[in-house]
Amino acid sequence: MARTSIHRLSSVVAAVAVSGGLYWLVGNLGLAIATGITWGTSLLLILRMSRLYPSHTTGNEWADKRWTGLGTGLLTLAATVGVSSSLPISGNLRLALGFLVIGAGTVGYTTATMAEIERKQES
Question: 90 burial class (0-12, 13-18, 19+ CB within 10 angstroms)?
Answer without folding.
Answer: exposed
